[in-house]
Amino acid sequence: MSEHRFPESAGPWTQSIRLAFFALLALTLLAAGVWLFSNVRQIPADSQAVVLSFGAQQRVEGPGLLLAWPSPINDVVIVPAFDRVIEHHVTALMRSSDAQEMDFQGASSNDTLAGSGYLLTGDAGVVQLDISVFYRVRTPMAWVLQGPHVIPALDRLVERAAVAVCASRDLDTILVARPEIMGSDSNVAQLRERLRADVQHNVEQNLLRLANAGADLGITLERVTVQSTLPRATVSAFNAVLTATQQASQAVASARTDASLTRQKATQRVDQLLQISQANAQENVAKAQADTATITRLTRNHSDPDLLARIYRERIAAILAQAESVVTIAPQDDAHLILQTAGQKDTSTP
Question: What is the mean pLDDT of the chain?
Answer without folding.
Answer: 79
